[in-house]
Amino acid sequence: MEEKKLTTAEKSLALHYEKKGKIEVVVNVPVATSQDLALAYTPGVATPCLEIQKDVNKSYELTRRWNMCLVVTDGTAVLGLGDIGPEAGMPVMEGKCVLFKAFGDVDAFPLCIKSKSVDDIVKTIHLISGSFGGVNLEDISAPRCFEIEKQLKELCDIPIFHDDQHGTAIVTLAGLINALRVVKKKKEEVKIVINGAGAAAISITKLLLTDGFKNITLCDTKGAIYKGRNVGMNPIKDEMAELTNLEGKQGSLKEMLVDADVFIGVSAPNMVTTDMVKTMAKDAVVFACANPTPEIYPDEAKAGGAKVVATGRSDFPNQINNVIAFPAIFRGTFDVRASDINDEMKLAAARAIADLISDEDINAEYIIPAAFDPRIKTAVSKAIADAARKTGVARI
C-alpha cells in the first residue's frame, strides 16, 4: 500500500507535537562544582547586582539584556487567521524567536498578553522592559497597534519595533527600489496605489513618502481614501488622507488602478484581476502580498502586462518576506545599543537590502535577495548601526 504523503500543514503539526515548542533556554556557564555555583549564583552574583544598582546601564554588560529582544502579541491579528487569542499565537511568536536567532544571532523571548486593552498591553511591556534590549510587537490588530507603539516609544528607553508595520515597509521599499530599476522609472514620477489600510499598508505608505515618493493613493474596502471622506474612517485614515491622494480622487480600487505604475497589495485574496492590470501603465509593477492567497497570482498579473511581480509567497520569485529585514535590523540596533529604530535607520536598511542586487544580476524575477542570503545580516546590521550613529540614537 502506498504511504500517504503528508501536507506541509500536517508535517508542521507533527513537528510541533514532537518538539513541544521551538525554543529553549540554554545555559552558557558551568554549574558542575561548588565553585561554579558560587560564581554563577550565590554568593558571587551579589557583586554584579551591586554594580547594576550603581549604574543601570551595566545591565547591558553583566546580563544577557544586551542581546535580548521581547517578541510580544495579544493574539488579535495572527498571520491571516485574525483574532485567535494570545495562547494560539504562541507558535508564531516562538517561530519569530527562531528567526531572530537563526538570521540575526539575536536572543528572543515570546510573550502573549491576555488583554486587548491598549493600557494593559502598554503597562505590561513597560513594566518588564528593563529585562530586554528591545521590543518587537507582533500580530496586534490595527488601529490599536499604532497607539501601543506610540505610547511605548514615549515610555521606554529601548527600541520599540512593530514588525508587521515597519519590517513589511522596509522590505517592500527595498523591492520597489529595485523594481523601478528594472522598469526604468523614477520614484518621484510613479503613480502608486496601495490596497489595504491596516498596519502594514499605513507603514508602507509613510516610509515611501519619507523616501521621496510623491503620488500615492491608499484604498480600503470602501475604495480610495480621500480628504473629507466620512465613511469607514478612523484617526489613522484621517491622517493618511492629508498625506496621500492629493488630487482627492474618489472611486473603487479598479478605478484607482487606471494608469497606475505600481500596485502594492497588503489586503485580501483575489482583489485584482488581469483586466484591471491591463488598465495600468506600461511596464507596471505589481506587489500582491496577501498571504497565503495573493490579490492576484503572478501569471495573471503578467497576462495583464505587469513587468515585475512580487508576492509574499516562497514558491514564486520576488518574495516580500519580513525575515529579510527584522533579524539584521535588531542585530545592528543591539550592536550600538540604539535607543530607537528611526526612519533614517529604516531607509538605510531598505537601501542596504536593495543594493545587494547588482546591476548585472537584477531582472524582473530577481529584485530582492532570498531570506537565506548570507550577505543580508552583515549589510543590513552595518547600515542600521551607521544610521543610528549618524542620527544620535546609538549609545555605544
Task: Tell me the helix content.
Answer: 40-55%
Query: Which architecture name of the domain at 18-158 does CATH use?
Result: 3-Layer(aba) Sandwich
Low-pLDDT stretches: none
The helix count comes to 16
Ordered list of secondary-structure elements with their pairings:
Elements: H1 8-19, H2 34-40, H3 46-54, H4 59-62, E1 68-73, H5 90-104, E2 107-112, H6 118-128, E3 134-137, H7 144-155, E4 160-162, H8 163-183, E5 191-195, H9 199-210, E6 215-220, E7 223-224, H10 235-243, H11 253-256, E8 262-265, H12 274-278, E9 284-288, H13 298-303, E10 306-311, H14 326-335, H15 343-355, H16 375-390
Parallel strand pairs: 1-2, 1-3, 3-4, 5-6, 5-8, 8-9, 9-10
Antiparallel strand pairs: 6-7
Helix pairs in contact: 5-14, 6-7, 8-9, 8-15, 9-10, 14-16, 15-16
Note down, in words, how this protein is organized:
With 396 residues, this protein is an alpha/beta fold. Among the domains are: 18-158, 3-Layer(aba) Sandwich (Rossmann fold); 323-390, no CATH class. The chain has 16 helices and ten strands. It has a six-stranded mixed sheet with strand order 7-6-5-8-9-10. The termini are far apart. The model has no long low-confidence stretch (mean pLDDT 96).
Describe this structure in a few short sentences.
By secondary structure, this protein is α/β, with parallel strands linked by helices. Helix content is 42%, strand content 12%.
